Amino acid sequence: FNILHVAARYGHIGLAKFILQQSLIDDIDCRAHSQDTALVFAAFYHYPSSAEIVRLLLSAGADVDAPGQRNKRPIHWAADVGNIEVIKVLLEHHCSLVPDDTGMTPQWRALKYG
Question: Which regions does the record annotate with the repeat ANK (predicted)?
Answer without folding.
Answer: 34-69, 70-102
